[in-house]
């Protein structure tokens, strides 16, 4: 099936030659006419994927608990800029604000909420979801627009959607992976001429066999550096949650999802969501180099259990009917459990602070 965006990309390749994976990634998501985020509603059961906040209110509530802890550890500064980058439907922010208003009303009153969102359609959805808090919410095109002041930042499934560069091992070294056209005029992966700085490659062992993929993400590093600059300038904490790996390694993680099923990345440009796994070791290294404290990185399951999701689930289910109690248990298993279809191990949580403060459930460095 040829999509309108596939037709556009093919014309671009015919005119100028193969394009890099990072350019293909960016066009698929952000093309002003046919890009995925411009034309689709990706979230929820009717979309292409379900994010953690849509699984259960427990996820956002635990993040709200963490933000209260962070605010208190920083000395309860005022005012507070409460920022979410890529807020989806606004579900997570709604759940966070509800628990914050209940357990730390002083923080709720001191906070203004800043949503970094470029999609006009999603802004309208967020406006409805957060209707009870509209007097304290502002929308921004970029993180740089958030007013100065102490910040608490949440970014859930943001970095996986920022384009990556891919390099392929060849007999003459690593070369950039490209997207070109095959003999049947269909999109196909190709190998370009640009190489990679060998210092960026994993150092353990010998070079891998030909055909091995290695990924870097300069655009992700740039976004994180902007966040870190703000933490350093104004003080605060950032919490980053995404699926990925804790150690830099070889491997092709580029993937597309269409109607909750994996799809070949070149099959339906503009119709399928395009993402890749996040290298949390690289994010942590970038944050340290930017001068902020890395509190740690842990599995989402350990993070949620450490904050009390099981106790909160018990309280939420108390006195409810059997079906509701079962749904709550299943939600906890999906968010915090291990194994296929569960998020507890695949998703990682990275916490950053400036100045450095201890942030449970992360363990202080020895």
Overall description:
The protein has 13 helices and 16 strands. α5 crosses α6 and α9 packs across α10. The radius of gyration is 21 Å and the shape is globular. It starts with a helix and ends in a 12-residue tail after the last strand.
Q: Keyphrases for this structure?
A:
5-stranded antiparallel beta sheet; 13 helices; 8-stranded mixed beta sheet; 37% helix; alpha/beta; single chain
Briefly say what this structure is:
Helix content is 37%, strand content 23%. The chain is of the alpha/beta class.
Percent of residues in beta strands: 15-25%
Q: Estimate the global geometry from the Cα principal axes.
A: globular
How many DSSP-defined strands? Answer: 16
Largest sheet: 8 strands, mixed
Task: Please give the structural blueprint.
Blueprint: H1 4-16, E1 19-20, H2 21-30, H3 36-39, H4 52-55, H5 57-73, E2 80-85, H6 91-103, H7 105-110, E3 111-116, H8 120-129, E4 137-140, E5 150-156, E6 165-170, E7 173-181, E8 187-191, E9 213-216, H9 218-234, E10 236-245, E11 255-258, E12 261-263, E13 273-275, E14 278-279, H10 280-289, E15 293-299, H11 300-307, H12 309-317, H13 322-336, E16 347-354
Parallel strand pairs: 2-3, 2-5, 3-4, 5-10, 10-14
Antiparallel strand pairs: 1-7, 6-7, 6-9, 7-8, 10-16, 11-12, 11-13, 15-16
Helix pairs in contact: 5-6, 9-10, 12-13
């Amino acid at each position: 099936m040829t999509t309108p965006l596939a037709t556009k990309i093919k014309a671009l390749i015919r005119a100028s030659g193969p394009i890099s994976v990072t350019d293909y990634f960016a066009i698929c998501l952000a093309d002003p006419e046919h890009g995925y985020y411009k034309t689709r509603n990706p979230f929820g059961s009717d979309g292409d994927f379900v994010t953690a906040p849509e699984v259960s209110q427990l996820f956002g509530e635990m993040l709200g608990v963490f933000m209260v802890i962070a605010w208190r550890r920083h000395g309860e500064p005022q005012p507070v800029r409460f920022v979410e980058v890529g807020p989806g439907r606004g579900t997570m922010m709604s759940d966070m604000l509800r628990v914050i208003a209940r357990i730390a009303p002083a923080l709720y009153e001191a906070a203004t909420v800043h949503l970094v969102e470029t999609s006009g359609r999603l802004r309208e959805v967020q406006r409805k979801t957060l209707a009870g808090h509209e007097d304290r919410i502002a929308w921004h095109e970029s993180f740089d627009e958030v007013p100065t002041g102490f910040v608490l930042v949440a970014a859930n499934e943001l970095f996986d959607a920022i384009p990556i560069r891919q390099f392929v091992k060849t007999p003459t070294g690593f070369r950039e992976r490209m997207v070109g056209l095959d003999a049947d005029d269909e999109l196909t992966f190709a190998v370009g001429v640009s190489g990679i700085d060998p210092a960026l490659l994993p150092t353990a062992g010998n070079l891998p066999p030909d055909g091995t993929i290695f990924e870097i993400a300069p655009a992700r590093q740039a976004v994180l550096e902007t966040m870190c600059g703000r933490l350093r300038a104004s003080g605060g904490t950032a919490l980053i949650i995404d699926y990925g790996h804790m150690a830099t390694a070889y491997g092709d993680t580029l993937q597309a999802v269409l109607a909750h099923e994996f799809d070949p990345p070149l099959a339906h440009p503009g119709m399928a969501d395009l993402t890749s796994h996040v290298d949390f070791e690289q994010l942590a290294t970038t944050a340290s180099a930017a001068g902020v404290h890395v509190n740690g990185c842990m599995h989402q399951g350990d993070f949620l259990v450490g904050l009390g999701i099981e106790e909160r689930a018990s309280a939420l289910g108390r006195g409810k009917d059997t079906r509701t109690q079962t749904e709550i248990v299943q939600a906890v298993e999906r968010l915090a459990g291990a194994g296929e279809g569960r998020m507890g191990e695949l998703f990682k949580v990275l916490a950053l602070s400036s100045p450095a403060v201890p942030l449970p459930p992360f363990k202080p460095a020895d």
